[in-house]
Amino acid sequence: MGTASESDFGYVLSERKAFDETKAGVKGLVDAGYKKVPSIFRHPPQKSEKKVSNLTDTSHVIPVIDLADIHKDASKRQGLVGIVKEASQTWGFFQVINHDIPVSVLEEMQNGVKRFHELDAEHKREFYSRDRTKPFFYNSNFDLYGSQPALNWRDTFKCLLYPDAPKPEEIPAVCRDILLDYSKYIMKLGILLLELFSEALDLSPNYLKDIGCAGRVLGLCHYYPACPEPDLTMGTNLHSDNDFFTILLQDHIGGLQIRCNDKWIDINPVPGALVVNIGDFLQLITNDRLKSAEHRVLSNHVGPRISVACFFSPSVEASSKPFGPIKELLNEDNPPKYRETTFAQYEAFYVAKGLDGTSALAPYKFELGK
């Protein structure tokens, strides 16, 4: 006979399996009229932690960087490199405006995500999968069977945007055109950001691009339904991203927060802006010069909240080659802090660990003095 904890785990697993088999996601619960958050979504108390108000404390305002004329004005570009460097070392987050992606494209991207997630359940179910190799699929909680304390109140579809986007017929018609269009804009912005990151590290502008930091781009398109008991669950649990960097489109609802000095700070939506954040793998190869940041998304009575996260990582081929701290950034006073690993190994560890609130980078760090 199993112990109580084994019995509890078995019950939780069966509950998660039952939820998974509906293939309707969190939206299915809302559509079914749930007025209470099911137990598998209930997180340990954590949202009562004091939140810093960005309105009264200007030291906790995430930078908003204006990219206008960056290609025409060398002195302005140099100034922006300094701001990107400061933001990437201090916060791991910043926002960008005047990024050359039309507002109409941003709005249509959000609308396309909403249209997909609000398809009728039968139509949407055909895209439901936990096969991460598929070029387009939808599910709820990638780590549903992982070790995280509770599930997150969100559904997601994932689409490979670069280099091998799905065939048009593999993408649902309701979001097909805008996904293919958006990917072109995002690649252009991503290359510019890699140039700025490279220059912030005193490397040649093409350095990070040339070593494969934009070899693959995945779009994760999140749908956070309105929650009947938002204080009991999370939209997305505390985590840092596993990639080189992420470009995030968020709507007006808000809820994204980063942790800094044990305080939670809002990243308030700015009309027309995109959020950029450093991922773990960029922190690893820059030997902590640029730092990923822990962040989360609060659930809300208001919804749905829509966000689109584009993750920049090595190509499938490059994912099996070792990455370590960039040699040009190392010296006697700054030895390597991380052991080499492949992105494929790191990603597999990250996925297996799930969003359990712990750092996936920690096991790759050399112990002090060794």
From TrEMBL:
Domain Fe2OG dioxygenase span(s) in chain numbering? 213-314
Is the keyword Oxidoreductase in the record? yes
Provide this UniProt record's keywords sorted from A to Z: Iron, Metal-binding, Oxidoreductase
Pfam annotation, one family: DIOX_N
- Provide any one GO MF term from the record: metal ion binding
Similarity comment: family membership? Belongs to the iron/ascorbate-dependent oxidoreductase family.
Essential cofactor(s): Fe cation
For this entry, the protein name equals: Fe2OG dioxygenase domain-containing protein
Specify the domain of life of the species encoding this protein. Eukaryota
Q: What SUPFAM superfamilies does this protein map onto?
A: Clavaminate synthase-like (SSF51197)
Origin species: Vigna angularis var. angularis
Keyword match Oxidoreductase = yes
UniProt-listed PROSITE patterns: FE2OG_OXY
The record's InterPro entries line, in alphabetical order, gives: DIOX_N, IPNS-like_FE2OG_OXY, IPNS-like_sf, Oxoglu/Fe-dep_dioxygenase_dom
